[in-house]
Amino acid sequence: DSGVTQTPKHLITATGQRVTLRCSPRSGDLSVYWYQQSLDQGLQFLIQYYNGEERAKGNILERFSAQQFPDLHSELNLSSLELGDSALYFCASSLAGVVDEQFFGPGTRLTVL
Amino acid sequence: AQSVTQLDSQVPVFEEAPVELRCNYSSSVSVYLFWYVQYPNQGLQLLLKYLSGSTLVESINGFEAEFNKSQTSFHLRKPSVHISDTAEYFCAVSDDGGSQGNLIFGKGTKLSVKP
Question: How far is residue A107's CA from residue A89's CA, in Å, rounded to a whole number?
């Protein structure tokens, strides 16, 4: 158990819909990262938050957005869903920066039908 | 921007045989390098990392990786693998060489250990 929790574990929805994925970091960790893992693209970094502020942005689509709340939990919002958005979405947390170990949650498997 | 290449998508080996999983990155500037492992139906876990100092780093379960700056490589090795090492292994590099950057992951290598 990494100490990072993600909900829900599975999500099945239809094209055009909007979903929210939730992540609670390990106690004491200030950074939260979101990743998308798919068979064709591999593990893609989406976005990082540090203590409530956006710190780094990766291959995140404009239809996707995220935020980190004062209690440090984070949400990833995916809208206007397409079939190609079906993937495993991981949240990770670390103490602060890139030199610190990232602890990954179990992931949310999103299926868009 | 940094990129990471893991040359082998799948590596099948027999139990107790040695294994090397290859990783090359694109830039020769100062970088931080990591290997993460993903067991079936689980999230990734840090296996080992290179930040500075000795170019050879080791994990607690017998894996080691060597940072080679001239060849921009960070290959992962184990002299004798076990069935329990069956997993997917990801090499990652910090994207700008600084402590504020994010990680860029390779596409992963699936290690399959057969009895």
Answer: 5
